[in-house]
């Protein structure tokens, strides 16, 4: 059994049309041949491998599920499996794409006017413009719906934005940053596209992260930033619109968790066949096979859940609680899986050259972003009991 079928044990990719399965193979080949040989160096440096962006663009996967505006118009199922393949190669690359093609392009696609979609989405699909998404703040993470402190106020034909955003991936090199701010007059949450080099907009990269080090997360300062009315997203008029974007992208994060698990598992599986102890490969040891089967069970269950979630997205029937259950469950199983992969490799598992340690570290960020396990659990709990317990 080859490594693709060994980690896709029930052939879920077989649900895709031939051309989309070929796309998955192209993404996997790119990650294996172009990313894996260099990613440890970029991860250690804490910088994103920007020289790879032109080749990433050639894959034609930015804005995968959006129709029109130069976007591929593929299914959410294909988009999810692409996110999985990216994360299997490296979770930082997958996160970069999730921010650019999911959160930033998705906000413009769902909340922009026709003119705004025509203006921004085609160059973003070609990755000539890179996007970021500014929602989380220094004092507001899980409670950002109520605790949003960044403000905006109308000033003639423009808006003035003041505040801070934190943990914003891609922000320090993005061409466009979606910023969510509370209108001082109406208290509504509005969305804006802030373009690079706008006066009053500045970023500082967050240093010394232990996870997703190749993602350049930044602290954004907005000090009297003037944004023209034409850059206010015309269909972003409440936090409900923000939540619509997050519902769409949360499923992709669940797929990324599957990919992180698969990457660790595949490296551990290869290692088990090569590592010799007591005169034979450790793949012949019962306890090693038990760890591998546990990992595969987690991966298969999570991928099956994600597949159904993506099918519901394609049918236009995905609910918040369904996306939340997938995100919470798959990230919990991911944490177990990468830990078992590290365990199988013994002390060698903590050496970056063997890759698994990078997945162990990166899993910690995937576990928390786009809704912590606790918050997603409470969203599901409210749905199944009819009683809110978030506060």
UniProtKB/TrEMBL annotation:
Span of domain Acyl-CoA dehydrogenase/oxidase N-terminal: 18-128
Name of protein: Glutaryl-CoA dehydrogenase
Originating species: Petropleomorpha daqingensis
Keywords: FAD, Flavoprotein, Oxidoreductase
EC number: 1.3.8.6
InterPro entries xrefs: ACX4-like, Acyl-CoA_DH_CS, Acyl-CoA_Oxase/DH_mid-dom, Acyl-CoA_Oxase/DH_mid-dom_sf, AcylCo_DH-like_C, AcylCo_DH/oxidase_C, AcylCoA_DH/ox_N, AcylCoA_DH/ox_N_sf
Family the UniProt entry places it in: Belongs to the acyl-CoA dehydrogenase family.
Domain Acyl-CoA oxidase/dehydrogenase middle: 132-224
Molecular function GO terms recorded: flavin adenine dinucleotide binding; glutaryl-CoA dehydrogenase activity
Signal sequence bounds: none
Acyl-CoA dehydrogenase/oxidase C-terminal domain segment(s): 243-384
A Pfam family recorded for this sequence: Acyl-CoA_dh_N
GO biological process, alphabetically ordered: fatty acid beta-oxidation
Cofactor(s) needed: FAD
């Amino acid at each position: 059994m080859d490594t693709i079928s060994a980690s896709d044990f029930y052939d879920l990719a077989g649900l895709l049309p031939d051309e989309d399965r070929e796309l998955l193979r192209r993404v996997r080949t790119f990650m294996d041949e172009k990313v894996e040989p260099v990613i440890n160096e970029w991860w250690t440096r804490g910088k994103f491998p920007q020289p790879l962006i032109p080749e990433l663009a050639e894959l034609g996967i930015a804005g995968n599920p959006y129709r029109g505006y130069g976007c591929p118009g593929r299914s959410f199922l294909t988009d999810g499996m692409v996110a999985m393949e990216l994360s299997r190669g490296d979770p930082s690359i997958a996160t970069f794409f999730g921010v650019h093609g999911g959160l930033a392009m998705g906000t413009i696609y769902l909340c922009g006017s026709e003119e705004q979609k025509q203006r921004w989405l085609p160059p973003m699909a070609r990755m000539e413009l890179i996007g970021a998404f500014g929602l989380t703040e220094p004092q507001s993470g899980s409670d950002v719906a109520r605790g949003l402190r960044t403000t905006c106020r109308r000033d003639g034909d423009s808006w003035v934005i003041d505040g801070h955003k934190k943990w914003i991936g891609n922000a320090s090199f993005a061409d466009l940053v979606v910023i969510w701010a509370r209108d001082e007059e109406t208290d509504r949450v509005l969305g804006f596209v802030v373009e690079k080099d706008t006066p009053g907009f500045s970023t500082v990269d967050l240093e010394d992260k232990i996870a997703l080090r190749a993602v350049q997360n930044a602290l954004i300062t907005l000090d009297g930033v003037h944004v023209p009315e034409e850059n206010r997203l015309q269909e972003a008029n409440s936090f409900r619109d923000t939540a619509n974007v997050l519902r769409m992208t949360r499923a992709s994060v669940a797929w990324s968790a599957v990919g992180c698990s698969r990457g660790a598992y595949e490296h551990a599986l290869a290692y088990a066949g090569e590592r010799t102890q007591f005169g034979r490969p450790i793949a012949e040891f019962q306890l090693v096979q038990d760890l591998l089967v546990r990992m595969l069970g987690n991966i298969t269950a999570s991928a099956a859940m994600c597949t159904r979630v993506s099918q519901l997205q394609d049918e236009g029937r995905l609910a918040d609680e369904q996306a939340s259950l997938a995100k919470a469950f798959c990230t919990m199983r991911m944490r177990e899986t990468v830990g078992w992969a590290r365990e199988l490799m013994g002390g060698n598992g903590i050496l970056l050259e063997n890759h698994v340690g990078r997945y162990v570290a990166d899993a910690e960020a995937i576990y928390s972003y786009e809704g912590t396990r606790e918050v997603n659990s409470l969203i599901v709990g409210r749905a199944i009991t009819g009683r809110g317990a978030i506060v």
